[in-house]
Amino acid sequence: MPSLSSYQSCFLLAGALALSPGYSCAQDTDVGPYGGDMDSGAAPQELEESGSSAALPVLVTFEAPIRPGQQAAVRELVGKMVEFNRAQEPHTLIYRVFIREDEQQLVFIEGYADSEAMRFHDDRFIQFFADEIAGLTAGGRLCIYGEVSAAYKAFAAQAGLEVEYFNSISGFQR
Question: pTM for this one?
């Protein structure tokens, strides 16, 4: 018998569960795969037919390898950054920081109400934290997803940020 990829195995497992007695696919549609109400009764925000995502937040990911032996310093700095942003950035909607299991990669996932909120954050980041995070990491990849103003793009270029921009083509937000 040929071996199955993990992708194929997951689909077979899902099919087996669907055929199990007592299993129903007609469960509450807003309950997530791990339980919990996903939308709390809110209607999803759809992209308009034109593909515009003006009502949706601007999302950011930043991934950077951590320099050897700097994991503790990274954790300490990230804690300061989170508290600094939480206290003074009301239009920062999401600010999550992750470290890969082997503790060699740092990942930021951020969401902003709009380009101005992102620029406000980035101005402060450059002023207070950029040099320190650059000393603890080795390069990185900065990606921005969604509608970004020309003013933000000019700011990013002037600040020396190397950004990959991605435009929305479809989706929703609850």
Answer: 0.69
